[in-house]
Amino acid sequence: MEGGRRGFLFTAIVTSGAGFLSAFAPNYLSLISLRFLVGIGLGGGPVLGSWFLEFVPAPTRGTWMVVFSAFWTVGTILEASLAWTVMPKFGWRWLLALSAIPSFLLLLFYAITPESPRFLCMKGRTTEAVDVLEKMARLNNVQLPSGRLVSDKNIELDEVSGSSESTTLLSGAEESDNLSEDRGSDFGGIKSVGKLLAPKLIRATLLLWMAFFGNAFAYYGIVLLTSELSNGNRICAKQDVESVNSTNASLYKNVFISSFAEIPGSFLSAMIVDRFGRKLSMASMLFTSCVFLVPLVFSRTDILTRISLFGARLCISASFTIVYIYAPEIYPTAVRTTGIGIASSVGRIGGILCPLVAVALVHSCQQTTAILLFELVIFLSGLAVSFFPFETKGCRLNDTEVDMN
């Protein structure tokens, strides 16, 4: 693990650079390659959530993480507005170029972005950790508790060297060598991945992967169904196909309207996550999303489709927000970012498979089968959440491994 600050820089540079270059892609292959790089950059997004989580107090951690996640909703609405405005007049190149601007703006904040004190302590860099904590105390007009900051790394070195309180820990050169050796021992993150599947964490890890997969599959599926169901109904009913411009305008309008479902979803998750806990909040949102999709199994009129998908997206966005709160809380500092990153990657697999299912089934006039598949995935995700090992509401973040089973 390289720390949240480097993850911040990686995400900003790769996403903004590849996103902007996409606007100048000379052919389809280069466009796909550059968008692939954008996806890699976005894959570092969970690092930002894990980093932010370590700077907020436990009693209001859920609420603050909802506020943090709400900016995804703001971005979704702004992107839909931008597409609705730019695409008909200027085309996709201008849309991609303008969409890269927010990621470029992130680079302006890198110089003032602090590293996680927990990460610094874990690496034995206590002096840097104290500097960050002192700056935080000054900004909040409070005093740090008295005493000396001691990291787990220093404790381990004490035990190895057999030193007492009256003896020197290690010489600077020896400590530096030990820390360098430790940083190099986790080659490629293999050790961290192994810890995720160790007996103490394996149950939580596998259930979390199921929850991420289901949330991503359902979220992107509902976004796609917003346009695909209405298009599929016209095709299967053998109605006249609308003009391209009319169809595109309708698509942007539908996506723009449905995106507003995430606003009440954010408010709802903020109200319940710290009051009822992570598990109950997530499970209730997933099962309620299933209820909203049930009417589409029997009828898919335009009004019913919009209402059902609006409600389902509201619930799924709330659940997706809460799972990003729960995930960092169940892992110790040493594997927190790795755990969230891998869980998010499993979710991306769900996001990749979802368009293939949604588009293929709807276009083959099997809308009912598509809806039932989404119902099944969401329901199984709700069950996985119900079997999560324990509740994390109000708990402090773990710095060491505990048994999650």
Automatic annotation (TrEMBL):
It is a multi-pass membrane protein. Residues 160-183 are annotated as: Disordered. Residues 161-173 have a biased composition (Low complexity). The keyword Transport applies. Its main location: membrane. This is Major facilitator superfamily (MFS) profile domain-containing protein. The chain crosses the membrane at residues 7-26, 32-53, 65-86, 92-113, 201-222, 255-273, 280-298, 310-327, 339-362, 368-388. Signal peptide: none annotated. InterPro entries: MFS_dom, MFS_sugar_transport-like, MFS_trans_sf, Sugar_transporter_CS. It is found in: Membrane. Residues 1-393 form the Major facilitator superfamily (MFS) profile domain. Gene3D superfamilies: MFS general substrate transporter like domains. GO terms for molecular function: transmembrane transporter activity. Keywords: Membrane, Transmembrane, Transmembrane helix, Transport. One of its GO terms (cellular component) is membrane.
